[in-house]
Prior knowledge:
The structure holds 2 protein chains of 2 kinds. Chain A is about 70% helix and about 0% strand. Chain A is an all-alpha fold. In chain A, a hairpin with a 5-residue loop joins β1 and β2 (about 150-155). In chain A, α2 crosses α3 (about 60-70). Chain A is globular. By secondary structure, chain B is α/β, with parallel strands linked by helices. The radius of gyration of chain B is 20 Å and the shape is globular. Chain B has 11 helices and 12 strands. In chain B, α4 crosses α5. In chain B, strands 5-6-7-3-8-9 form a 6-stranded mixed beta sheet, with helices on both faces. Chain B has a 3-stranded antiparallel beta sheet with strand order 2-1-4, with helices on one face. A 3-stranded antiparallel beta sheet of chain B has the order 10-11-12. The interface of A and B includes residues 267 and 270 of A.
Amino acid sequence: xxxxxxxxxxxxxxxxxxxxxxxxxxxxxAVPIIFVVVLVLKSGGPNDVPLGRYIxxxxxxxxxxxxxxxxxxxxPLITALVAGDIVASETQNGTLKTILxxxxxxxxxxxxxxxxxxTYTIALVFAMGLVGLVAGSLxxxxxxxxxxxxxxxxxxxxxxxxxxxxxIYVLPLAGIAAFGVMLSTVTRNSAASVVGALMWAxxxxxxxxxxxxxxxxxxxxxxxxxxxxxxxxxxxxxxPVTRALWVCALYIGIPLVAAYLVFLRRxxxxx
Amino acid sequence: MSPAPPVEARGLVKRxxxxxxxxxxxxxVEPADVFGYLGPNGAGKTTSLRMLLGLIRPTAGSARLxxxxxxxDGAKALAGVAGFVEGPRFYPYLSGRRNLxxxxxxxxxxxxxxxxxxxxxxxxxxxxxxxxxxxxHGMRQRLGIAAALLRSPRLLLLDEPxxxxxxAGMRDMRDLVRRLASDGITILLSSHLLYEVEELCNRVAIIxxxxxxxxxxxxELPAALxxxxxxxxxxxxxxxxxxxxxxxxxxxxxxxxGRARIGFTAxxxxxxxxxxxxxxxxxxxxxxxxRVAEVAV
Lengths: 271, 297
């Protein structure tokens, strides 16, 4: 096992030993379940959101609708909860100096932390999507899905589209996580980093709805949460998908490079 | 060429704004030394050790461990080196053993096979399954030693290892340090306790307000201090320092100590203990400025 892989394994183990990880994962799993239970008990529904009208037609529609609602602040919050803590908590507990006086270079420790944060982010999205799919299918069955173009998509194809959508949806969330990691590294304060990363996500949403921002809107982080719409059109619209790929690469890459450079050089002293 | 010494610091400076926490410190620790780094709280001991371990960047100067500078060579400079600064810290939500497993995996080579041995050495085998969050201060200190020993170090850096321990814990810790030293491990131990350094160390550096005021063999300290004309028959006996001198020489000595910026609290006729001399060099002039530096560090 390489050095980074060993660090990564322990970073994941540390996440699995902490309550906040389960708080985040639990919330991501609970939301689609609550969503389905409420819609089973009550009539009416989210008719004005993509695929909202078809939510009782098939369990396949549920995760897509939940993705929309959770992009506003739910997933950014539970992502920030871990990303904002990943370096700062070690600074505050003094364990950063413990691991930095072993045989691992700072770059290896940082890489392990980034990979663990990415793992958590991916787990959140897929856990939420798959739990939504199962809960929805139990309630309304696993039937063909109506695409955003109005065509009917077979359940198997719909499932493939869901997995692709979850995959592209991870990217803007990783952008928020990367910002959280940067704050966590720079501020050394867990709470400030969690709140700061959430504010960053909310600012991106706000910019997207303000008048006069139309020209920059396609390049805002919040907009990329809708990139999956491209998969749900017939034929598939690759424009939002490819744009999400490169726009998110910048939103992920820039904060991570900044955090990396700070982490390599910073003084590790008591707080 | 002789091999590089375990510790070699040259002109180390660390500045925090206007505060100079460490001011041109030169330190050389030779193989098999038990080196005492003595000074009052806030004198710059911990900051110096942090620079040695590469945790913080010196404002000026260099630190080398066995010839390797951690700023240049990264973690490779810490090969054969272990220890802790400002008390060992662990993940409170993991057990003692899990903490050691984690740290062992961060070592080159992976040091897992030694976990049982080091747990036994610090007498923590019975509590290894418990979370560190529930450990007493003394148990954490011992776990800190265990974590350091996992690396089979040739050089051990220990920052105030007995601070906060009860008398029995202090005695056990000192026994352990003695045992490790007798195994041939070079030890750099910081302390604000004179008698601890006196008991354990063969060489000493005394730091005050970030500056080294004395460095050398412990046994030579009184002589170095008292190498003044008119002062004779310097003798250390049962921890006490005796010398004979006429009153003029004693007066000259106080002036010389003052010029050397060495404060002292008392000069007692017929009885001036080694301890008093040490205290004069260290605690005697501790001031608010020191405390400011400690907070800023």
